[in-house]
Write a structure and sequence with these properties.
Blueprint: H1 2-17, E1 22-27, E2 39-48, E3 51-56, E4 65-68, E5 75-81, E6 84-97, E7 101-105, E8 109-116, E9 119-126, E10 130-134, E11 148-158, E12 165-166, E13 170-180, E14 199-202, E15 206-213, E16 216-228, E17 233-237, E18 240-246, E19 251-257, E20 260-265, H2 283-326, H3 328-341, H4 344-357, H5 363-368, H6 373-387, H7 396-402, H8 424-430
Parallel strand pairs: 11-18, 12-20
Antiparallel strand pairs: 1-2, 2-6, 3-8, 4-6, 5-6, 7-10, 8-9, 11-13, 13-16, 14-16, 15-16, 17-20, 18-19
C-alpha cells in the first residue's frame, strides 16, 4: 500500500520535477537554400514561471557561414506544456552560407535566470543539434560567392543634366541598390569603374535596413560619386553591371545601368573693352589724363588676366581641397569623428571602409595585423553590441585614440566577393580584454 501511495506522489510531482529551462530551434527552409542566401534561424528559450534575467543569446560559430544576430526586438511567448506554464523569448538569427553542403548549428548553452519556488535561480538552456542543407546554384557553375536576394533593383540619378556642364562644374551621381530578404551590410559594393577624362571622388557608402519599397521590406546601399573635369569635350561614364541570384526565380540575374555621356563646354569669359576717347584739351588736362591712364591701365590688365586665370585657379584650389579630403590623414580624422559622435552601425561601416582602404579584406584581418590589445578589445566589444547583446559598453575615446596607430597598409591582398562579417573568432580571442582601458 505504501508503495502505491509513493508511486502516486511521484506521478503527481513528475511535471514539477521536469519543469526545467529548454530551447527550441526552427529554420525557414524551403528546400532550395543556395550559397549567399540569408537563412533565418529562430531560437526560442523557455523557462517555468518567468525570467528573472534575460537569456544571453550567443553568437553562433558555424564554419563557412556568416552569422549575425540582427538588432530586432525579441518576442515574448507564453506556453503551457504538460500543465506547466512556461515563459519564452524568441530571437531570430541570420545565417549566410558560403558554400554548398550540410550546416549544423552548435549545441550552445544559453545562460539565463528564472524563478523557482518564488526564488531567482541561475540556469541554462542548451540548443538541440539542428542541421540544414545548402544546394549549389543553378547550373553548378560558380566562381565566387553569389549575392542572393529578392526583388533587387539598381537605380541612379544625377544632380544636374550631364549634357549642360561647363569646365569647373561638378556632377554628382547617386546609385541605390535595394534588395529584399537581406541585410544592408551584406549588399556588395557597385563596381563603378573609371570614366576616362573625368576625375571622380567616391564618397563613403550609406547603408539602411528596414526600407519599404513597393510593399517589399528590405535594405539598401547608397553610393555617391562626384565627377569633375578641367577641359571641355564629350566624356562617357561607363555602364554598370550588378550580378545577383534571384531567390524567387531561382536563377542568376544581372541588373545594369546604361552608360551616360557627359558634355562639358568651355567656360565663357566676358572681357570689357575701353575705347580711347581723344579730346583736344589744354596741355595740363592732357597730362593729367595721361597720368590717370598710366595708373589705370595696369589695373585693368591685371583684372583681365585675373578673370582669364580664375577658372584654372578655382580648379587648382578644388583639386587641392579634394586631395586633402582624400589624404590618409583626412580620412583618419573623419573616421575618428564618426567614432566619437556616430551611431554603432555607422562606426562599424566606417571601420570597414578604413580597413579596405588599407588593403585588408575585413576588419578582423586588419585587427589581427595590429599590435594593439586595446584596439582588439574595443572592436570586440563593438561587434558584441552589434551582433550579440548590448550588455557591455565600448569606450569611444579609447577606440578613437588607438585606431590611427595602424601598421603600414598591406601591398597585396586577394579580395573576396563577400567581406568577412563574422567576428566570432575575434570576439572569442579578445573576450579577456574587454575591460582594457
Amino acid at each position: 500500500m505504501k508503495a502505491i501511495w509513493l508511486l502516486a506522489l511521484l506521478l503527481i510531482a513528475s511535471p514539477c520535477l521536469a519543469a526545467e529551462p529548454f530551447a527550441r530551434v526552427s529554420i525557414d527552409d524551403d528546400g532550395k537554400i543556395v550559397p549567399g542566401q540569408q537563412v533565418h534561424v529562430i531560437i526560442e528559450v523557455f523557462v517555468p514561471d518567468f525570467f528573472t534575467s534575460p537569456p544571453q543569446f550567443p553568437l553562433l560559430d558555424i564554419p563557412n557561414a556568416v552569422v549575425t544576430l540582427p538588432d530586432e526586438r525579441a518576442q515574448n511567448l507564453v506556453q503551457t506544456i504538460d500543465g506547466v506554464e512556461y515563459s519564452g523569448i524568441r530571437r531570430r538569427y541570420a545565417v549566410v552560407p558560403e558554400i554548398p553542403g550540410t550546416f549544423t548549428l552548435p549545441s550552445a548553452a544559453i545562460e539565463l535566470g528564472y524563478s523557482r519556488d518564488g526564488k531567482p535561480v541561475k540556469g541554462e538552456a542548451r540548443l538541440p543539434l539542428t542541421s540544414f542543407q545548402v544546394g549549389d546554384l543553378a547550373g553548378g557553375a560558380r566562381t565566387s560567392l553569389a549575392f542572393a536576394a529578392r526583388g533587387l533593383t539598381v537605380t541612379q540619378s544625377f544632380d544636374r543634366d550631364p549634357s549642360t556642364l561647363k569646365v569647373g562644374d561638378a556632377l554628382v551621381r547617386t546609385i541605390v541598390v535595394f534588395a529584399g530578404d537581406t541585410q544592408a551590410m551584406m549588399i556588395p559594393a557597385v563596381d563603378l569603374r573609371t570614366a576616362d577624362g573625368l576625375r571622380q571622388y567616391i564618397k563613403p557608402p550609406r547603408i539602411e535596413d528596414g526600407v519599404q519599397v513597393d510593399r517589399l521590406q528590405g535594405s539598401r546601399r547608397i553610393e555617391t560619386v562626384v565627377y569633375t573635369t578641367d577641359k571641355s569635350g564629350d566624356f562617357k561614364i561607363p555602364a554598370v553591371s550588378y550580378s545577383w541570384f534571384d531567390l524567387d526565380g531561382h536563377a542568376q540575374r544581372t541588373s545594369s545601368l546604361p552608360a551616360t555621356t557627359v558634355a562639358v563646354a568651355a567656360a565663357i569669359h566676358s572681357r570689357e573693352r575701353i575705347d580711347p576717347h581723344l579730346q583736344d584739351e589744354e596741355s595740363h588736362r592732357h597730362s593729367r589724363s595721361f597720368m590717370l591712364a598710366v595708373v589705370l591701365v595696369p589695373f585693368i590688365l591685371l583684372g583681365a588676366l585675373a578673370r582669364r586665370a580664375a577658372p584654372r585657379v578655382f580648379v587648382w584650389i578644388s583639386e587641392y581641397r579634394r586631395f586633402r579630403r582624400n589624404s590618409r590623414r583626412a580620412q583618419l580624422r573623419r573616421l575618428k569623428t564618426v567614432i566619437l559622435v556616430g551611431n554603432e552601425p555607422a562606426i562599424y561601416s566606417a571601420l570597414q571602409n578604413w580597413s579596405h582602404d588599407l588593403g585588408y579584406r575585413s576588419i578582423s584581418e586588419w585587427v589581427q595585423n595590429q599590435d594593439s590589445p586595446r584596439l582588439r578589445a574595443q572592436i570586440g566589444i563593438l561587434e558584441r553590441r552589434l551582433f550579440r547583446s548590448r550588455d557591455m559598453q565600448f569606450d569611444r575615446a579609447v577606440l578613437a585614440d588607438v585606431v590611427g596607430n595602424a601598421a603600414p597598409p598591406v601591398t597585396a591582398v586577394v579580395k573576396s566577393a563577400l567581406p568577412e562579417l563574422n567576428p566570432t573568432a575575434l570576439c572569442a580571442r579578445d573576450q579577456a580584454g574587454y575591460s582594457a582601458p
